[in-house]
Amino acid sequence: MKLSKQTLEILRNFSVINANILIKKGNKLSTLAVAKNIMAEVTVDETFDETVGIFNLPELLGVVQMMGDPEIKLDTKFMTLSEGKTKLRYVYADQSILTYPMKDMKMPAEDISFDLNSGQLLQIQKAAAALGVQDIAVVGDGTSIIIQVLDKKNDGSNQYTIDLNTETTKEFTVYFKIENFKHISDDYAVSISSKNISKFVGSSVGVTYFVAVEADSVWN
Fold first, then answer.
1. Contact 162/118 with Cβ under 8 angstroms?
2. Mind giving me the DSSP string for 134-169?
3. Spatial contact of 185 and 118, defined as CB atoms under 8 Å apart
4. What count of other Cβ atoms lies within 10 Å of the Cβ of residue 138?
5. How far apart are CA 93 and CA 52, in angstroms?
6. What order of strands is seen across the sheet that includes strand 112-116?
7. Domain map of the chain by residue range?
8. CA distance 181 to 199
9. How far apart are CA 48 and CA 76, in angstroms?
10. How confident is the model at residue 114 (pLDDT cuts 50, 70, 90)?
11. Contacts of 134 (CB under 8 A, 6+ apart)
């Protein structure tokens, strides 16, 4: 088995959410942040015929990059990476020391939905870095939905606003932490529930993220 460029990109993204991962048999990858406020899942082209526990995913990805494009053979307790005349054995971690999703996430009924394209996602991340703020607000005024990048504890803070060109009859202010926006670059269909959970479904790469909504969000 070889890992495609897209699967490697997904694994690099997952390693930012959690440095360890449990890859179960099959073709579905998932990860869960240690704080359990971000979960991500995706179906990939490769099929894993063994359950693989990795404690340090960035380390493994570094090994794969070092070797180039290795052939990977999975055994019950370790994997073997081979490239030309070189070979490396990488031992699995025990599942008991890993943080991973125990079951599939079930999204409650949505109260808000909108589309967020890759350009807008990048703008949000760049604006937060430029302004030195940590908060994102999705705001509905009964007419339309906007996204603001701001410091929610400071009414006088600088704010960056994106009009999502989406109509709504509801009024709400839903808060996220920018540190929880670890999405891979893609266009997303977003749904948010008043149960303080959101779902971002990627259209191209196909990763789905479940991201916690901050408890001080306001639903009118």
1. no
2. -EEEEEEESSEEEEEEE-TT-TTS--EEEEEEEE-S
3. yes
4. 22
5. 8
6. 26-32, 38-48, 208-212, 197-202, 188-193, 112-116
7. 5-97, 112-219
8. 12
9. 11
10. very high
11. 128, 151, 177, 178, 179
Class of domain 5-97: alpha beta
**Two tokens, residue 110:** 């949505």
What is the CA angle 150-156-161, rounded to 5? 35
| Token pair belonging to 192 | 């948010």
Parallel, antiparallel or unpaired: strands 144-150 and 188-193: unpaired
- CA–CA gap between residue 189 and residue 206 (Å, rounded): 11
Q: pLDDT tens, 190-215? A: 999 999 999 999 999 999 999 999 99
One-letter identity of residue 32: L
The token duo for 83 is 């490239």
The pLDDT tens digits for 122-134 are: 999 999 999 999 9
* Fold of the CATH domain 112-219: Proliferating Cell Nuclear Antigen (3.70.10)
Long-range CB contacts (< 8 A, 24+ apart) of 38-41?
38/180, 38/182, 38/209, 38/210, 38/211, 38/212, 39/101, 39/105, 39/209, 39/210, 40/13, 40/14, 40/207, 40/208, 40/209, 40/210, 41/101, 41/104, 41/105, 41/207, 41/208
